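Predicting structure from sequence has reshaped protein science. With that in mind, we have picked out one protein's residues alongside their backbone shape tokens:
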Amino acid sequence: MFPPKSRPKEADLVEWSHLPGLSPYLETLAAMEARAEAIARGEAEEAIWLLEHPPLYTAGTSAKPADLRDHDRFPVFQTGRGGQYTYHGPGQRVIYTMLNVKERGADVRCFVRALENWVIDTLAEFNVHGEIRPGRVGVWVPRPDRPALPDGSPAEDKIAAIGIKLRRWISFHGISINVEPDLTHFSGIVPCGISDHGVTSLVDLGLPVAMADLDIALRQTFEHSFGRGATCGLG
């Protein structure tokens, strides 16, 4: 008697692609939108793209003009994703997630929480404790090594940003995780509209993590947040 076939892992049902070099923003955005449309039509599999961009700023749908501090430093792109200003550049892993949200519960808040949980699980592979904050999308790292803020709250830095857009229930845009970007490049904007806290990276935290190691961890932890039976943890 043959043993039953094991069910494929969720990560194996999604097409993963690594885009080498620095991906030009507008061309990559156009390709991502085309892929999302193909997924919506049932002509392509769900996809996750792992890439890096040249230095640039993007403005989400909630971006405030005053939060762009340096207009001439890097190219600025208006984008339809949620969120405010963010930076992309070498040393930052950008993860574009083209997934069917309708088939994953049709709950956008839950989907965003699943993305955050995915980042937290991935960081935990490197013994980094990531946290989420009410009213602030993204993942934060407590910094007990730094003085508390003037209001007495503990210092913390953002290590990952999240901004998505949905079209016909297919998500695109996605996540950026700071591995080893030039953190001074964030000074040209108010990242995600938050000026009370800083920005960090895995290398800034003293962890010489290679981009390839992060990619392996992302794939290994994907199942926990997006596999069958996964919950987003909304309370």
Summary: Residues 108-124 form the longest helix (17 residues). The chain has three helices and eleven strands. The helical segments are 25-40, 108-124, 211-226.
